[in-house]
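User: I'm putting together a small comparison set for a docking exercise, and I want a reference complex before I start. The sequence is below, and the ligand is flavin-adenine dinucleotide. Could you produce the 3D structure with the ligand included, as structure tokens?
Assistant: Of course. I'll restate your input first, then give the structure tokens for the complex.
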Amino acid sequence: MEEKIAVIGAGSTGLFTSIELARRGFSVSLFDRGIPGSGTSGRFHGLLHCGARYAVVDRTAATDCRAESERIKSIAPHCVNSTGGLFVALDRNDEEYGEELRLNLNRCSIPYTELNGSEAVRAEPNLNAVVRSAIRVPDAVLKGRRFLLSALGTCIAYGVSFHPFMNLLSAHDDESGDIEGLSFENRIGGGVHRASTDFVVNCSGPWIGQTSKLLGHRVEVLPAAGVMSVVGKRLTSSVVSRMRRPSDGDILVPYGETTIAGTTAAVTEDPASFEINEEDVGLLLDEASAMVPQIGRLGFARSYASFRPLVKEETGSVREVTRDFRILSYDAGPRNVVNVAGGKMTTSRLVGERTATEVCNALGVRKPPAGELRLIDPLDDIRTVEAGAGGDNTAIERIVAEMRGGTDDEDTNFVRELAALVMKWSGAG
Ligand SMILES: Cc1cc2nc3c(=O)[nH]c(=O)nc-3n(C[C@H](O)[C@H](O)[C@H](O)COP(=O)(O)OP(=O)(O)OC[C@H]3O[C@@H](n4cnc5c(N)ncnc54)[C@H](O)[C@@H]3O)c2cc1C
């Protein structure tokens, strides 16, 4: 018998969890109150981490990123721009951190090369001329929307049934206290949609505090807001990071024809009421212009924000909470639930794989994955889909609106075509 699994949340975590479950022969239904990318995954910084950023502060996260960034380059080459990354030292403190960084890059087996100041400026002519030294690492740029759409297309190819605009309302228990069904508010068709299920995997990102309660468990997260600001010009060829402990405003990502500066990190009480303030944008401008002075003259074209669902731990500041992920399963209460929180876009395939293993363990079944995983390229399908043709235009307009204001905001035609594709793949277009 194929067990029925409901996955809540179609961000990168839910998409890869669905793929890995479907590859193991489960019957998977994927629900989102919006679409892939209407949460954090559509509003990330654009960086495929090689692990260097975390090498000093979180070695597990660093080694996971090193392995997974290479894996993504091989399973989804169409989603990656292998720009390389440059950690730049602008002062003596940065250089001191550089010693610690080199030591830990070695420990994490992350390859690097060293550049002196003039070599760094030759490699990146827009860098601040005061640069003293630099370390080149294999960071890369991940084309966010294309990555999510590729993962969704791959889900569909593995037989996952995808349900956009379904907002989880409640769970229904059977006599043993396990969940046997879920109710969703249908945000497009109206009314309540009911789905029966044998197991629920909750991948609702920063909303997991609320959704885990609906599923009978409590997951404590720190919603930490991160602001990113976009310069309307590509100013570097590689990702540029400040050579210091991870901190606010220390990364510049060359994303398409733009440069994205970020990020900030501040715990917020309520993500729904978060507003970007001038102070955050001013800080990003100061930090970004210290690395590339031209940014101070050009200013930012726009800013956007998203939230890290950091699992709450008894440590001091937000920056010290691990970027690692948690897969939480239960022996009591509803036992057929797994809550998944944390991680990065870079490590979402790994999170999906480990979650699928956890589901197999909880169900007491052994199901190895079928074949080699490779993500399909949605561009082939896009060419065959006329935006809006034969589909529900209201739904498409709604998708376009949900996609607005994130990492991939510059190409509106592309967004419209992708919206038509999302509807087609959900069986509604
Ligand atoms: C500021 C910032 C910058 C980042 N930059 C990077 C980066 O450069 N590189 C990197 O690798 N990682 C980065 N990350 C991390 C990365 O973005 C996330 O780890 C990744 O997107 C994982 O997303 P997710 O699927 O867990 O959550 P999300 O993408 O938020 O997905 C959760 C989904 O659940 C849905 N949902 C919520 N509630 C319900 C409900 N009641 N019913 C149904 N569906 C629901 C939402 O609509 C959403 O689509 C960044 C994170 C932040 C905050």
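The chain has two domains: 4-41+145-221+322-425, 80-140+231-312. The pocket of flavin-adenine dinucleotide is lined by residues 8-14, 31-34, 38-41, 44-47, 49, 167-168, 203-207, 211, 226, 263, 306-308, 343-346, 348 (CB under 6 Å).
User: Thanks, that's exactly what I needed.
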